[in-house]
User: What shape does this take?
Amino acid sequence: MSSSHEIDVKELLAKVDSGQPLLVLDVRNDEEFENWKIEGRRQFKAAHIPYFDFIEDEQAAVERLPRAEGEIVAVCAKGGSSEMVAELLRGRGLPARSLVGGMIAYGEYLEPVTVPVRAEEQSVFEIWQFNRRGKGCLSYIIISGDEAVVVDASRSREIYQTFLSERGVRVAYVLDTHVHADHISGGPALAGKLGARYFVGAGVDFDLQQRVSTLGDGDELQLGQTSIRLLATPGHTPGSVCYLVADRYLLSGDTLFTTSVGRPDLGGHVVEWSRDLFQTLHERMAFLADSTLVLPAHYGDTSEIGRAGVVAATLGELRRDLPELQIAELALFTEAMKRVLQTPPAEYAEIINANLGKTQADPQRLVEWELGKNQCAASKGDR
Amino acid sequence: MKKLDVRGAKCPIPIVKAKKEVDQMQPGELLEVISTDPGSLPDFKGWVQTSKIAVLKEQRTEKEGGTDLYIHILERK
Assistant: This one.
């Protein structure tokens, strides 16, 4: 339970997003702060003073605080040090609260947002985008009638379970678009809990130790009064798939983002996977209309969150705007992909093994592996 | 050498307790801090950068059973 001296992630992000005055005081060490910090949909006042500076010389640390209107929210890794700092600030008459659960809670927080669909579709199905703000991961629940499908579930499965049981829907399938390298999939565990079938686009290159349903390119899953079609879209990984809902909404996984394409370099076969990705983007997806709404599994920056709170773009917009989609020749595309080679996500080998069901890591390890934002796009999209 | 066992304690406890100990020590005296919090490695490094009383002489990781122990040797300035 959060006391009046604590603030939870939901309330903090609501304050930041709505532009309420506040000072976010990060009290972690320099390295942790540089790697990963709170981001909002609007600019906000932030300061970084490590908690041990308050222990060493409280007066000097307090003097470093910038002047700010509104309250101070102290943030640390797990909520312990920020609680200490918030308490000593309150002792000096300053309005301060501590972010309960710290960056761990921030990294696990999921925000459900409804994806606007056309008027005639509203009575047929709903699409919910679950925005994992701290990591930039997007997962989905599609509901039609009394049935639901979950796609690319994050590890903390309670919020999905609560959401689904409140709606009283039965989950037929839990699906992953691919073997994620940046976060632990909640898919297999969620499917197990719900008694649903599980499928992941893994392909033959992965040594998958999990029991999965056999689905292939073009297969249709009936969901209430609508359907979901599986499209094989190799590139980011050889087994990557997209799910096309009602012929119009493309859950694009890490194949296509709103500002970039999925990086094809994580398997050490950048030439082969770039060729796959090129064919996927230009041939396999060629039949999709420009009006198709692309709903990706990630975003890189809060500026990608649109007015309705949804991360999405039409395929027409992406065909027009993404430099990667302008390249009409395979050789040039491959060169472009090689140029953007970046460091792989931290701990990605361990995360892949856990997602393949090869390793059973303890929950604490899983939390540590997932710290930080995703790095799944071929470019940052900051243009 | 003095010892401070903060196994099981999470931040900020290890540094709060270490600071209290070092405050009581004579210049040149050493303190061994035993922690189970991996975050203590960068945090002790960060603390001594601004500390007027403590110097970090050594940091190492030891295994005890299945647990990692993070050892920090501090000297009073």
Notes: Chain B has two helices and four strands. The interface with chain A takes residues 10-13, 15-16, 19, 38-39, 42-43, 45-47, 50-52 of chain B (CB under 8 Å).
